[in-house]
Design goal:
Strands 1-2-4-6-7-8-9-10 form an 8-stranded parallel β-barrel, surrounded by 5 helices. Strands 17-19-20-27-23 form a 5-stranded antiparallel β-sheet, with no helix packed on it. A 5-stranded mixed β-sheet has the order 18-28-22-25-24, with no helix packed on it. The protein is built from 11 helices and 28 strands. Helices cover 18% and strands 26% of the residues. It is globular.
Length: 563
């Protein structure tokens, strides 16, 4: 397939020389890797052959201090007699990516998993373990062999906040013992300020980068400019952060199917980036979840072009300036910090491991958007389970995640669960504007504090944490994400959750299980045949209507049962 126009322009401007990642720039591009979100994840090294991303975040270490790693199809082998992943191919790719001037860091946490510290001593001891297993220390089991990572990211979406400042302080003391390279501490809070899980840690520990998730929430990119709240995070960076030079990133979904809400096209994202860059000096660049989604949709190329056109430094992420791009239809620095990377010539350069996926071709229905055919403006469309985006005057098609279908909603192509809709239809938007125009009379009635998620330990027969997160709100319609997370023990595939709706609200649909409503009490029961036998988390979206003003349900009313 031909390169997207935006990506072609961006690559034409790249230097042929490898340039090291510079944390002080506002034109950096960060993307997560490891969860095969688009079902077509390639090897890590494949994404480092070009100059698109500056930082790759490996996702996830989703269990600690009893370490559990999960990188989907990127690594599926373990040490003999152990459940700990051993990833020699990823190790080779990490060194290759670093040789291309990119930073590679490991993300701890995620939306599901069993993680958290009992206290400071537990956290300090684990920082020693992390240094020995993933950095310059020594251990009999190192998942990435002799590869040395560039930092740690905290994507904490559950559990308590105990121990994280102590963990960071201890890890940074190890960082200071190695003056040969610069190491980083990053975090990925959700956009509602302050973050439910990381607020205390963000205010009391050192961070170099903060990747704010502007999606799956009322303050997402799709709410720009009304509720988009980068200003809150800029104010935090300048007034409360320990590191007054911390860089804050605009976190974006890599495609319509990468998040429940918050996706915007490349043109809209550039508009937001340019506006933020002109106003807020804390900006570090853009982050996407995840690299497989952003590469497949073409958004990654648009981001690189936008960053290089407007940002300072404008390095690009090293690598070969003329990569081959393919798509598939399937699945001030602290005194303890060391000197930054420098550009050097190397006598030997690591090479990437072999790709991990094959690339079948796709077909389209008659009279539907066809890849490579002409389109106009910012049109979007759907062809069954494929979403279509107009870029450079030509259609680009990508595949929704397995089990979902493409739906055209107010001119915007989104991937959603079928919910009884036909999965074999074609649609093309007619207008050039993809942003939903909010009813401003309704916006004035909605106050942000009422939309901040309030996770609680639910009334339950298994230790479980429940959280409600506001999604899209337009007119008198809303969407909300329900997050159920087991604290210690997995729950079965047969479960139910009930909660009380605020007055004037209804629930019309759920993307998981079946919903029933009795007065203002909602009950959602799983479909066991569609569930795993054991689950550490269940995340799904509900939609409905409200009157006058919108409020999240009281989390304390949640009752969860596993049968």
């Amino acid at each position: 397939m031909k390169l997207l126009a935006g990506l072609s322009v961006a690559l034409a401007a790249f230097s042929a020389y490898t340039t090291a990642f510079d944390v002080n720039c506002n034109s950096n591009y960060v993307s997560y890797y490891g969860q095969n979100s688009a079902r077509n994840q390639k090897s890590l090294g494949e994404y480092c052959k070009d100059a698109v991303e500056d930082v790759i975040v490996l996702a996830f270490m989703n269990g600690f201090p009893n370490i559990l790693l999960n990188f989907a199809n990127a690594c599926e082998t373990t040490f003999e007699g152990s459940t700990l992943l051993h990833c020699p191919s990823m190790a080779k790719d990490i060194k290759y990516c670093q040789a291309q001037g990119k930073a590679v860091i490991l993300s701890m946490g995620g939306a599901s998993g069993a993680y958290g510290f009992s206290g400071d001593s537990d956290a300090v001891a684990f920082a020693d373990t992390v240094w020995n297993m993933f950095f310059k220390g020594s251990s009999d089991k190192r998942p990435f062999d002799d590869a040395v990572l560039d930092g740690i990211d905290l994507d904490i979406e559950g559990g308590s906040g105990a121990g994280y400042p102590a963990f960071i302080n201890q890890l940074r003391s190890h960082y200071a013992s190695d003056p040969s390279k610069q190491y980083y501490i990053a975090a990925a809070p959700q956009c509602p300020f302050p973050d439910v899980y990381l607020s205390s840690t963000l205010n009391s520990a050192w961070f170099d980068m903060v990747y704010v998730q502007f999606y799956n929430n009322y303050c997402g990119l799709n709410a720009y400019p009304n509720w988009f709240n980068f200003g809150d995070w800029d104010n935090w960076a300048k007034t409360k952060s320990i590191n007054k030079n911390v860089k804050v990133y605009i976190g974006a979904p890599g495609s319509p199917s990468a998040a429940s809400s918050g996706y915007v096209d490349g043109s809209t994202l550039k508009t937001i980036y340019d506006a933020v860059r002109s106003k807020y000096s804390s900006l570090g660049g853009i982050m996407t979840w995840d690299v497989s989604q952003a590469r497949t949709s073409g958004l990654a190329g648009s981001i690189r072009a936008a960053l290089d056109a407007g940002g300072t430094c404008k390095n690009g992420g090293g690598g070969d300036p003329t990569p081959t791009t393919t798509t598939t239809s399937t699945t001030t620095t602290s005194s303890t910090s060391s000197v930054p990377h420098s550009t050097t010539s190397m006598s030997t350069t690591p090479t990437p491991s072999e790709p991990t996926t094959s690339e079948p071709t796709s077909t389209s229905h008659t009279n539907c958007p066809v890849s490579g055919e002409p389109c106009s403006g910012n049109q979007q469309g759907c062809d069954g389970n494929k979403f279509a985006l107009c870029s450079g005057g030509k259609w680009y098609l990508g595949s929704c995640v397995s089990g979902t279908t493409c739906v055209l909603n107010n001119g915007q192509a989104i991937c959603d669960w079928p919910n009884g809709r036909s999965t074999d239809t074609c649609e093309i938007s007619g207008g050039s504007s993809l942003q939903k125009r909010l009813d401003f009379s309704k916006v004035s009635l909605i106050t942000q504090p009422k939309l901040r998620p309030k996770p609680v330990n639910a009334q339950s027969n298994v230790p479980t944490r429940v959280e409600f997160v506001a999604g899209d709100i337009s007119g008198e319609k809303y969407s909300m994400v329900v997050k159920i997370q087991a604290n210690k023990k997995a729950f079965s595939g047969k479960w139910s959750i009930g909660f009380t709706l605020p007055d004037g609200q209804t629930v019309d649909s759920t993307s998981r299980g079946e919903v029933s409503v009795d007065s203002n009490t909602v009950t959602i029961k799983s479909n066991p045949s569609s569930e795993e036998a054991e689950n550490m988390a269940a995340i799904f979206k509900i939609t409905g209507t409200f009157k006058d003003s919108y409020d999240l349900p009281d989390t304390n009313s949640a009752v969860f049962r596993s049968f």
